[in-house]
């Protein structure tokens, strides 16, 4: 097992009604915060009213930053930073999916930086200090509620990049499975694919002896497959929503990936798709992942694929390894289709016109050091196989 | 899934040589600390010298509390508190097994309390504030390096009780598998039994829908069985020691037990054994656990035992449930024998003279609400079946 540092300090309040614990946690830090949310779905569900009432009852004043987009844009960050400075706010509270939380994190990190917030995305060492971040998550997907990652898009340069900083790890996250009941079937399926991809990206690693990380990864993958389907079929299945939500946080809080340093393959390829076509991140991953697995098979790099096939999918271990690997890739594609995700990038609205540019940008994220090293040509080949 | 709060803020530095990260973490809080250790094994292994050198090189001064016992005694806590007050120390650094860390935690919590430290064990609400705790763990067993529990014995009243407080969770723990190479075969086996018991105590729960907790539990149990045996057979097997060590921390940092509120059955029975006979905690658990599993079978409460048998031990799911349950209990006993733990309490030096008293004390820890409720008579019966 490789050396690692593990640090997941976020306090989690999990379960229905657990939002009642939020005000006391915020008040340990500030009574004057920025409230960040998205396109208004929290107003429809009543969550907006619940939070603002809790703020009033507990003497917390807030300024609002509404309208944060899926694949959150740098413009929203700039506006949030402006509000924090103008009103001397002491914390950032996000309610919504991963996008609102990511936006909140970068705002929190950019307030004390004098230049443009996009600078700290390009160079994380420019972050000086961070406001405390709190969140109420309404989507099981990115796992941002328990880590220090934040992905921001800058459409003016067709770029989607991540900030990684321990200091933006939320102080406290509220995970109430009931808030995910209204998530659409497509977003539920895409979220499931995103969670699974976070696990795949670290499960497929050259690191050896990682029994703990791999055992937890396999357990969570099985849960995603079981509960992802159940949640799509029956959106108000509390147990399915609860397990999916808790799995989403643990999939990417460091637990599955500790001591596994390689850069991520499918995320690197997908980030380019979202940056050029603004597609749903998880759906892009669901199409790319089985294609990437087939690339592993072409490269004869199948040992982990075989473990996944046997331990997660229950494929007979007595079959020849290549057959297990092919069946594992095939069943993964079938699973994503079964929960309603299109099988091709074309169906998601992706064209072929930017493939070379996207492959170059993906390659530049370090794909020569990926689990199975990829050249620009390899990436182009994978993109094309998804059309 | 039941509601829960999860909070595991300890920063973990894992792997060989990772102790180099310790001084910087301590210095964020204090440059004048109490250094707590046990009977001198850290002097034999060179760890004492390494730590005191790191202190000197980094300008950290310390007072020492050596000689902390297995099943740490309240007298050591009192002495540590005296030292902290006399020298105005700003943190507590423990190096050794769970006992030294538990002792350090209670010292850290008792310094600001005016009365006798045993009071805060009997009534945790008396804890006012805690000094920061740091540790270098040298035994995969209690998992104290990542939680807020500390067990202390008061032999004058034959009592062994636990403090639970979020504020004594270590700020930082160093987990270097090489420091566990010198752990004896018997202590390695007992540590493995302790880890497994921490998982069993929460795996066997009436809580429903806990797929994440149960999946992680099953993964960690499999690792304990595989790596516990390997570490006993080959004490310098780095990968086995590493996985056992990381499993020990995750087994009881809240991850496996969140949303599972029942009091613990085997630990309750074992704490009485250690309090009366000062036996090795994990060895006591290894004898009690299979006997308790057989008690479950007598009560026809076998559903979780069947899951454990199939998912962890790989027993054929097609067999009748009772047969799976009996085989699961039997194989658990066999496993503990195979790593060198005696099969009976008598062999561990336990007599029958205190059984009634021990059963009463165990019952008073809430056994009417245990996973399978136990009366004093049930507990006496389980103790006797272990003789």
* Strand order of the biggest β-sheet of chain A: 1-8-5-4-2-3
Number of helices of chain A: 15
At CATH level 2, the architecture of the largest domain in chain A is Up-down Bundle
CATH superfamily of the largest domain in chain A: Dehydroquinate synthase-like - alpha domain
What is the element layout, followed by pairings?
The structure is a homodimer of 387-residue chains.
Chain A: E1 4-14, H1 22-27, E2 32-37, H2 41-45, H3 47-57, E3 61-65, H4 74-87, E4 92-96, H5 98-110, H6 117-122, E5 133-137, E6 149-154, E7 159-164, E8 172-175, H7 185-203, H8 211-233, H9 238-250, H10 265-277, H11 281-298, H12 303-311, H13 321-338, H14 355-364, H15 376-385
Parallel strand pairs in A: 1-8, 2-3, 2-4, 4-5, 5-8
Antiparallel strand pairs in A: 6-7
Helix pairs in contact in A: 4-5, 7-8, 7-11, 8-9, 10-11, 10-14, 11-13, 11-15, 12-13, 14-15
Q: Would you kindly provide a written description of the structure presented here, covering whatever features stand out?
A:
Two copies of one chain form a homodimer. In chain A, 49% of the residues lie in helices and 12% in strands. Chain A is an alpha/beta fold and 387 residues long. The first copy, chain A, has two domains: 11-179, Rossmann fold, CATH 3.40.50.1970; 185-385, Up-down Bundle (Dehydroquinate synthase-like, alpha domain). In chain A, the strands form two sheets. In chain A, strands 1-8-5-4-2-3 form a six-stranded parallel beta sheet, with helices on both faces. The first copy, chain A, is globular. Chain A binds chain B through residues 1-9, 11-18, 21, 177, 208-209, 211-212, 215-216, 218-220, 222-223, 226-227, 238-239, 242-243, 246-247, 250, 255, 258-259, and chain B through 1-9, 11-18, 21, 177, 208-209, 211-212, 215-216, 218-220, 222-223, 226-227, 238-239, 242-243, 246-247, 250, 255, 258-259.
């Amino acid at each position: 097992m490789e050396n690692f540092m593990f640090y997941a300090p976020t306090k989690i309040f999990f379960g229905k009604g657990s939002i009642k614990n939020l005000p006391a946690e915020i008040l340990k830090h500030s009574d004057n915060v920025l409230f960040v949310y998205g396109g208004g779905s929290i107003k429809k569900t009543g969550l907006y009213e619940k939070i603002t009432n809790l703020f009033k009852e507990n003497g917390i004043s807030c300024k609002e930053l509404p309208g944060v987009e899926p694949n959150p844009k740098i413009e929203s960050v700039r506006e949030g930073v402006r509000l924090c400075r103008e009103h001397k706010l002491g914390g950032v509270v996000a309610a919504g999916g991963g996008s609102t939380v990511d936006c909140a994190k970068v705002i929190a990190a950019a307030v004390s930086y004098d230049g443009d917030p996009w600078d700290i995305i390009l160079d994380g060492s420019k972050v000086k200090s961070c406001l405390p971040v709190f969140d109420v998550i309404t989507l099981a997907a990115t796992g941002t509620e328990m880590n220090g990652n934040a992905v921001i898009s800058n459409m003016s340069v067709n770029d989607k990049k991540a900030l990684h900083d321990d200091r933006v790890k939320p102080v406290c996250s509220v995970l109430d499975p009931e808030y995910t009941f209204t998530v659409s079937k497509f977003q539920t399926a895409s979220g499931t694919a995103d969670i699974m991809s976070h696990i795949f990206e670290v499960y497929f690693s050259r690191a050896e002896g990682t029994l703990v990380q791999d055992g937890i990864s396999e357990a969570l993958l099985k849960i995603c497959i079981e509960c992802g389907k159940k949640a799509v079929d029956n959106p108000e299945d509390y147990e399915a929503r609860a397990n999916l939500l808790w799995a989403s946080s643990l999939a990417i809080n460091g637990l599955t990936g500790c001591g596994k340093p390689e850069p991520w393959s499918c995320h690197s390829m997908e980030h380019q798709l979202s940056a050029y076509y603004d597609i749903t991140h998880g759906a892009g991953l669901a199409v790319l992942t089985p294609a990437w697995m087939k690339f592993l098979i072409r490269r004869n790099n199948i040992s982990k694929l075989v473990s996944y096939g046997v331990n997660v999918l229950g494929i007979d271990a007595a079959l020849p390894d290549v057959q297990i690997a092919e069946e594992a890739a095939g069943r993964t594609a079938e699973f994503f289709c079964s929960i309603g995700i299109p099988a091709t990038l074309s169906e998601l609205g992706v064209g072929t016109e930017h493939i070379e540019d996207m492959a170059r940008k993906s390659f530049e994220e370090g794909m020569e050091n990926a689990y199975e090293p990829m050249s620009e040509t390899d990436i182009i080949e994978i993109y094309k196989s998804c059309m």
